[in-house]
Design brief:
121 residues; mainly alpha
């Protein structure tokens, strides 16, 4: 009888240890997953922080100040002339600039360069 109690106790103890090990293993996996997500979030936030720092440096620079003064106040340096384009021309220039910035070339097939200049004016 005593041996049965000892064996039963050992079986219960082993069962408890196995259940505890499985529970701890699952908890460890969850913690590792949270850690992985947190690291990813930290990397994203560090990248965003760096982008904001670059933007801050640009905003604090004289180049930004000059650009804002030129664009919003239509001011120019001494010796320069401010040219105000009609809205239609601004739209054309905006489309051309977008195409140039995206790496595409704006080509008018079949037209010679001098004809494009004549059409511009």
């Amino acid at each position: 009888m005593r041996e049965k109690l000892i064996r039963g106790g050992i079986i219960i103890l082993i069962f408890y240890l196995v259940v505890s090990f499985i529970r701890d293993s699952l908890e460890l996996r969850q913690v590792e997953e949270r850690l992985k997500r947190a690291k990813t979030e930290v990397e994203e936030l560090e990248q965003k922080h760096q982008e904001l720092e670059e933007k801050k440096r640009w905003v604090e620079s004289e180049g930004f100040t000059e650009e804002e003064i030129r664009n919003k106040l239509n001011m120019a340096r001494e010796g320069e002339t401010v040219v105000i384009l009609p809205e239609e021309e601004k739209r054309k220039m905006g489309v051309k600039r977008e195409l140039e910035e995206s790496g595409q070339r704006l080509e008018e097939e079949g037209k010679e360069n001098w004809r494009r200049w004549v059409e511009l004016f």
